Structure formats: structure tokens, C-alpha cells
Records
---
Amino acid sequence: MKTILCIGAGYVGGPTMAVIAKHCPEHRIVVADVNEERIQAWKSGPLPIYEPGLDAVIQETRDRNLFFTTDICGNIEAADIIFVSVNTPTKTFGHGAGRAADLQYWEKTARLIRDNSSSDKIVVEKSTLPVKTAEAMHCILESRNDDCHFEVVSNPEFLAEGTAIHDLEEPDRVLIGGGDTERGRAAVRELVALYEHWVPSERIVTTNVWSSELSKLASNAFLAQRVSSINSLSAVCEATDADVDEVARALGMDHRIGSKFLNAGIGFGGSCFKKDILNLVYLCEYYGLQEVARYWEGVIQMNEYQKQRFVGRMMRTMFNTLADKTIAVFGFAFKAQTSDTRDSPAITVCRELLEEKARVVVTDPQALDNAKSALSEVDPENITFEQDPYAAAEGAHAIAVLTPWPEFQELDYEKIYRAMQKPAFIFDGRNVLDQNQLYRIGFNVYPVGKQPLSHV
Ligand code: UDX
Ligand code: UDX
């Protein structure tokens, strides 16, 4: 039996440890976090994050071999392996502000581990970190004058929110980066053995530490780049008569390109893509690779442009003024099947609509609480939050679909149309609605990357 501690009980730490606990019943897994409210929610529910399938895994493992606690220090000594999955936001201050990763939580955690250990430990980087962080952490951990040894291993997590349990159960690959020393190799073997409980060996890839750290940044950068690429083409489609879904289909049938991640929309969001690309940009600048930095920065610029373009098109379509008009925002989460709104494109879109003096009504099946906190600075006179999409659309001049929730496809749009101001507009920012049907009902329909279907 091994004791595994995970520091950080967020979107990554919680689900990952639950799945490890499920497949490794002989190991004791403790998940610790400074946030008492979060830990209480993991202990007795409702769970602090919405993730399909997570409840069942927690039911099976909690209090069997999966435990939650706020006592980080008290659980360090007993642990053989310590996963660290504390957050690493973009720095908002000082050198590298707006680009570099803020590593203060990681460093504090490393010091806690150092100061509360008297036996050897494997420390696993689960958070996405800048290349060479493991090396810095190694220095901190080893800065004690005894023979207690800490081996730092990089094991980035590739789960996507909304499909986290599936991604953890059947990962495309598990990446483990370790040092090229006897102890480094032993630590890697130990992690490989853990994952081999349920992941086929050929999907477990071992590399050196830096390749592992960089591969994680690169994976997110590539995925985000695909979204920005198709979004850039959506602008060309709107200017010509091409249809972005038809272009994406034709592109994706080339097996070298592949069909995934080619949905045009209002841009990517989430806690990772922008942060990780900024990290990559900062790293490139640090090493004097200005051209490489500018190349990746373009992916973020395109994403910002796409959000502005969306609001600009709404403005132009609605007779160049949004002042005093009511816009029903359908979906605030950064993607479907999650309550997460971190860096959601809906935040920018709503702020821009409010700048134009529109009244905004937000509806979302899971993310309303987070939406309220994300827009807490807005005067409540100008924004309302409605669980019921029919109530949200009542009296509205336009609907803007910002999250591709399947629920929005099931709504009775005849009923919605009757309750709206005329002319009624729908801006389908995710191309998920039946646009011809909406047009037949009477809506003026504006998809992304296609010609509008308009009666006006
Ligand atoms: C993850 C990764 O860890 C991050 O690197 C990745 O790139 C984004 O996603 P995530 O699980 O989504 O983070 O973050 P979050 O849900 O914010 O969880 C982090 C947890 O760490 C929080 O619950 C926070 O309370 C906890 N924490 C943070 C600590 O326990 N100690 C600290 O010092 C800081
Ligand atoms: C991402 C990575 O997929 C995952 O491997 C990594 O561990 C964390 O970052 P996540 O941010 O949870 O996961 O969601 P993802 O499904 O990648 O979507 C990110 C954003 O891109 C969302 O806002 C989504 O709506 C958008 N997107 C995705 C598109 O606009 N079009 C697409 O075709 C795909």
C-alpha cells in the first residue's frame, strides 16, 4: 500500500485523484486544499464542480480509499507520492505581468513539503507549469541539510472539463517526465506502475522532465491554434459566400488534418489555453526567440478579434445601436457540460454589450453562480440572471448563444419568438441551432462564418 497526497482539490486534483482511487483500491489517497468550503463540499456534497460522471466515482471511493482534508502539513509526512495541482494563474504584477505564470502557490507548496517531511518523497507536478519549473522546485526541496531526498517528476494532466472522467479513464496518453538518474528512473517507474492499473502500457509515455513540461504547453497551444485558425477562416467566410462548417468538413476529411477541434465560434475560453500560450510566449521571449513568441501570440490575438467581431456584427445588424435593448445571453460557461466560467468568451461579450448600454439577461443550465461572480462589478440594474431560458428571452430584442449547451437545441423557439421584441434576432455564436427552422419561425439568424438568414 502506498499513501498518495494531492495538494489542490480543484478541477484537476479532485477528478484525477478520484479516478486513481477507483483503480488503485490498495492505495490510500488523501486530497488536501487550503479552501475549507471546497473541502467540505468534496466531503459531503454537492460537489464543488459540475462534471458528468464524477458523482458516481466519488460515491464509490470516498471514505474507502479517498479522503479529503484541509490539513495539508499533517498529511505530508505519511505520503510516499505527493501530487501538486495548485493553480498557476497568469501573473498580474511585476516582471512578466500578463504573461508569465504566477508560481507563488507552487513555491509555497514546495516549501511546505520540504518543511514537513523527514523521509524521501516523489513530488509530482500535475499543474501545468513553465518549462524548467521542476528544476527550480528541486532546488527548493533539496535546500535542507539532511539526506531526505525529493524526486520531482512532471506528469501533466490532459483532461478537458466536461469530459474529465472519460479522459481520465481512457486517456490518449499519460505523460511522465523524470530525471535521468537512478532515483529519477525509479520515480518514473513508480508512477508508471500506478497508471498501469488501468491504462495500457503503450499509452504511457516517458520523457525527460523538460520535454514533458513543454509537451503540455505545446498541446494546449496546438489545440487553441486550431480554434483560432478556423475562427480566422470564419471571418473570410462571412466576407465571401463560403460556409465555415462546409469548409471545416472538407478540411477535416483529410486524415492528416483530422476533424476534431474545427468548430468555429466566439473563441476559446477556459483556464488553460490563454494562460498556457502566454506562458509559452514568455518562455520564448526569455530565450530571445522573438519570432516564435510573436507566432504564438497571434493565436491569442485572433481569439480576442473573434469576440470583438461577434459583438461588432451584432451592433451593425441591430441598426448600429444596442442602447436600451435587451440581449438574452444563452450560455455563460466557457464550454458545455461544465459550470466553469474562467476566461469564458461570454465575459468579454457581455462586458462589450454592457459598454454599448444594452441590458443583458444571462441564462445557463449550470454556470449562473459563477457568472454572477464573474460579472460582480456590473450594476444589477443592467444585468439579470435567469435559470429559465424562456424567461430570459421574454421581451428581448436578440438572443446570443455563447455556450453550445445541447439544452438550447431542445427549446420551443416558436414560443420564444412570440415573447420577443420584433424584429427578433438570434446570433448563434456556436453554430448549434437549426438555423433554417429559426428563419422559418421568423427570426433573423446570424451564425458564425456563414451568410445570415434574414428577413430585414
Ligand atoms: C489546474 C492546474 O493545476 C493548473 O496548472 C492548470 O493549468 C489549470 O488547472 P485547477 O484544478 O483547474 O488547476 O485549478 P483550481 O480549480 O483553481 O484548483 C486549485 C486548488 O488549489 C484550489 O482549490 C486552491 O484552493 C488550491 N490551493 C491553491 C491550495 O490548496 N494551496 C495553495 O497554496 C494554492
Ligand atoms: C483544454 C484541453 O483540451 C485539455 O487537454 C487540457 O488539459 C486543458 O485545456 P478545456 O479547456 O477543459 O481543455 O476544454 P476544451 O474542450 O479544450 O475547450 C477549450 C475551449 O475551446 C472552449 O472554450 C471551447 O468552446 C473552445 N473550442 C473547442 C472551440 O471554440 N472550437 C472547437 O472546435 C473546440
---
Amino acid sequence: MTRVYNFSAGPAVLPQDVLQQAAEEMLDWHGSGMSVMEMSHRGKEFISIYEAAERDFRELLGVPANYKILFLQGGGIGENAIVPLNLVARKSQPAVVDFVNTGSWSSKSIKEAKKYCTVNVAASSEAQKFTVIPPRDSWKLSKDAAYVHICTNETIDGVEFQYTPEIGAETGNAPLVADMSSHILSRAVDVSKYGVIFGGAQKNIGPAGLTLVIARDDLIGHALSICPSAFDWKLVAENHSMYNTPPTYSIYIAGLVFQWLKKQGGVAAMEQRNIAKAALLYDYFDSTDFYSNKIAKDCRSRMNVPFFLRDESLNDIFLAGAKERHLLQLKGHKSVGGMRASIYNAMPVEGVQALVDYLKEFEKKHG
Ligand code: PMP
């Protein structure tokens, strides 16, 4: 068996130990005589899996007691509608929502939210081709926004917030909503500074199909009447994420990933490793003009690293050589071009080192 180094942006690499354990437990989970996929979501076996996953996630991210953790479906794109459906009714209609446009994913959130509210783009780095994050003091926030939406890690463009922006009293203390799909659990976060955090699981958490939402208690219970019941955070919270059938197998694997993270030393230890992994790549790109990363240094993502070959006519040869060395999924997103290495929690430092070794070898040959 050859396991590749998979640099996919998502669905993405999972820890091998987790896959191994899932394989061992596939036919008979803990003497139940069945796989987790076959269990009733209301049975005591699955409830124990769900409760452990919820508890471990809360512990790993330090989620305070006045926040609910919801295990939903619908992905990040679903939340682009589900968030306004749950939050805009707290204000007189039509409510205003502030957005900071830092790349493809916040742009998508803006487009969807326009169906449910008046959108104010408080700041945008589109003119800089999303290579920077607009500084907090340049944001033109509304007086009474229902919330302020940011995407804290832009998976496609490769920019990441390195701090939590304060939303002051002058804006009516609007809650901060963050799409953390592609870097949740990769770094420490002060959850108490956010009203809502959401993320699809398929990058840093587990299989696709599961979406995690962390919502402060006072922001739950305001869904518009048109909000589908399965996405009304109050109904979901009251039913411990079992209002409808949750994505049980994805929750099980996410739970194993949480246990693995705890064994690795938790989020703080992961963050140190992620800093070191990202530095291996960025330091190399900064040391040569054969490759380039175009992102402002203080906004560079630790998770998604876009890069370009100086001579783009070599792109296909580069990718073919990478594949021969079992370095997969390095082609950049079509909207950006070039290459992209996604180096989530489960990508070992050896994988990043193997990529750097290949980058050097390729440069020697073609530079
Ligand atoms: N937000 C971000 C930051 C993402 O990276 C993605 C997926 N790449 C999404 C939202 C959308 O996720 P999904 O396809 O699961 O809806």
C-alpha cells in the first residue's frame, strides 16, 4: 500500500491513525455487532459517540458554556444562507449585514446573503486581487448591523486573519460571524470574541457532510419564519443536533479526529506545528525567484499556500513530476491559477518537507 501526500484543499488528508481505527471498528463497533453507519442515531451507542465528540470539540477549542455546538449539514455554502436566516430577524427589516470581502469565499457569502438582507461591504481587497486583508481601521461598518461576517481563512486565495478583529460599541456591538471552514482547530481561537463560528468538516475535522456551528446562546431563537426547521438553530440546539438525522458517520470520524488532536497535545501544539510547516514553504518561496507566493507576509495562510512557477509553461511538467513522487492535488484553484498546497493538521511535516525537496529538485533542473 502506498499512502500519498495529499495536498487537496478539501475533502482533504485525514490522520492515518484515525483511518486505521475506523477500519478496525468498521464491522463491529465496540462489540455492538454493527458499524457506526448502521446504528440508530437515537441509540445509546451513537449517543455516546456524539456526546464524546461534542465534549472533546468544546475542550479543544475552549468553547465557553454560553455557546451551543451544533452538528449540522449543508456545508459552508449552506451556512451562507442559514446564518442570515437565523440572525437578521433580531433587527428591523430589511436588516443590514456588514461583510469584509477578502476572497472567493467571502464573495460567495455576500452573494447569498443578499437574498435575505441588505449587504454592506465594509471593506474589500478585491482591487488588490485578494492578496491582503483590509486593515481593521479601514472597515466602514454600519451603525446597527445584524452582524459582521468575515472569512478567517480564504481557502482559494490563501489569506488568513492573524488576529481577531474587535467590533466596537460604535457599531452597536454587532456579533462577529466567522467562516472558519478551512482553518478551524489549526490555531487557538478566543471563541468569546465571536457571536457565531461555522465550518464544514472536510478540511481539518473529518469527512464531508458535517458542518459545525458554534453559536452564542443569545443569538439562538431568532430564526425567520421561512427558515427551514432543520436549520433553525433553536430547534437543532433543543434536540441536541438530532432534530433531523445527523451525518452520523461523519460525526464519528470527527470524534476520532478530536481524540487524535488531544493526543497530539491539542490545538496549541497543532498551531506550533502548523507555523513550522508553513514556514518551510514560505521561507523557500522567499529565497528564490523561481517560485512566488503573492500574499502580503502578515496575511499568509498557514493552511492553504498558493504559489506560482516563474515559467508557467512548466506547470504540467511540474505536476506530473509531483505525481510521480506521490505528491498529489497541487494544482491551484482555477480562479487563481498556478499551484496550491493545502497543509491541514493531518498533513505531516514529512509531507511538507517532501514537497520542498521536490520544489528544489525541480528548480535545479529547470531554473
Ligand atoms: N467556506 C470556505 C472557507 C471553504 O473553504 C469552503 C469549501 N471549500 C466553503 C465555505 C464551502 O463549503 P461546502 O462546499 O462544504 O459548502
